[in-house]
Amino acid sequence: MTNPNTILKQQIQSCTQGNPKDFIENFCKVLDQIFNENGIDLLDNVKCFVDEIVHESFPLVNSRTVLKTLFDKIIMLSDDQILTLLRYILDKLNSRALSFEDQVVFIRQTLSQIYERKKNYSEAAEILEPIPLVNGQKEYPTDFKIEIYLRIAKLYLANGDKEKAEGFINRASMLQSDVKNEQLKIQYKLCYANCMDYKGKYLDAAQRYIEVSNKFFISEEERYEILNNAILCTMLAGAGKHRSRLLAILFKDERCQHLPSFKFLEKMYLEKIIKKNDLELFATMIKPHQQANRSDDTTVLERAIIEHNLLSVSKLYKSITFKELGTLLEVDIVKVEKIASQMIFEDRMYGQIDQISNTIVFEQTNSLITFDKQIETICFQVNDVVDSIQQKYPGWIEKSIEMS
């Protein structure tokens, strides 16, 4: 009995012997036949077909054209079949990758999408890395390079690999000034914010989220998600002046009032003490990567709430013993003393610790410091307004400068 692959090879060979004008058409007919049969030998038949058309003896231009037709058919198959065939073709093209650069890029992008659908984020990112964006034969547009860098970064973030993600965001940042596409600029800023969020740099992340939320080129649904991220990051950040400023900005933003996290934002802005039951409810809102444990056996959320509560207590009491403080905050005495001393050392809270009486004496901030804080908040809000005007009316600043 004749081997089916032998028959297929004979059919392929016969395609090369006819009129050169019909060369590609004949190969496409064989391809149609393979996919129309769609039997148990489909994958083997496609591999056999690929072996012939990517062989060095096969005209390069014709190979590229037939591969395009083949890809159109392959992507209609199941994900597992696509993976099998595209991985096989990629291996075959590796030795001639420069000659088939466009085809290899298409394969890598398609494989990445499938790996992502399967939640294999690491594989999805790694398959994109070899795309020769810098040293390839082809000169790729800046927008395309940034799209690939950001996609790889997002995939690594989804896999929890924040260091690798930051590396690709840094590559994108080197090209960002040349980007004209506003949507792509927003994607970059959002990806950077996500990276800071994953790295636990919550103040930086919140600042970036707030900035992106004011852009015009995002949907309302996405805008609310970004604002919610800004609130979560602000509340998880270490207590202090910068965090207080961001709390004020978010609390006064009418868009935040419709978010489920707003009632916690309100309590923090009004400097109310957050009780344990509130903390447990808030814990259900934060994301998995924000639930990390610190070296002092507290979660990021627990530490943030303790610091917030200490600042709240400092506005209510002139002094308090650590025993009373521990009872009030429902926190171990040793732990609360350690956190308080660190906040005082870092100038995030004003006070002194009396070791003899185990008491903390709070120092009230003077009116000048409060006034400076208010001025800082106003300046920040004015900058946001100017940025929004510049987004809607690009030439406004230049015209205003000329008229002044």
TrEMBL record:
<comment type="similarity">
    <text>Belongs to the CSN4 family.</text>
</comment>
<dbReference type="InterPro" id="IPR036390">
    <property type="entry name" value="WH_DNA-bd_sf"/>
</dbReference>
<keyword id="KW-0539">Nucleus</keyword>
<feature type="domain" description="PCI">
    <location>
        <begin position="198"/>
        <end position="367"/>
    </location>
</feature>
<dbReference type="InterPro" id="IPR041406">
    <property type="entry name" value="CSN4_HTH"/>
</dbReference>
<dbReference type="InterPro" id="IPR054559">
    <property type="entry name" value="PSMD12-CSN4-like_N"/>
</dbReference>
<protein>
    <recommendedName>
        <fullName>COP9 signalosome complex subunit 4</fullName>
    </recommendedName>
</protein>
<dbReference type="InterPro" id="IPR040134">
    <property type="entry name" value="PSMD12/CSN4"/>
</dbReference>
<keyword id="KW-0963">Cytoplasm</keyword>
<dbReference type="InterPro" id="IPR000717">
    <property type="entry name" value="PCI_dom"/>
</dbReference>
<keyword id="KW-0736">Signalosome</keyword>
<dbReference type="GO" id="GO:0008180">
    <property type="term" value="C:COP9 signalosome"/>
</dbReference>
<dbReference type="Pfam" id="PF22241">
    <property type="entry name" value="PSMD12-CSN4_N"/>
</dbReference>
<dbReference type="InterPro" id="IPR036388">
    <property type="entry name" value="WH-like_DNA-bd_sf"/>
</dbReference>
<dbReference type="GO" id="GO:0005829">
    <property type="term" value="C:cytosol"/>
</dbReference>
<dbReference type="InterPro" id="IPR011990">
    <property type="entry name" value="TPR-like_helical_dom_sf"/>
</dbReference>
<dbReference type="Pfam" id="PF01399">
    <property type="entry name" value="PCI"/>
</dbReference>
<dbReference type="Pfam" id="PF18420">
    <property type="entry name" value="CSN4_RPN5_eIF3a"/>
</dbReference>
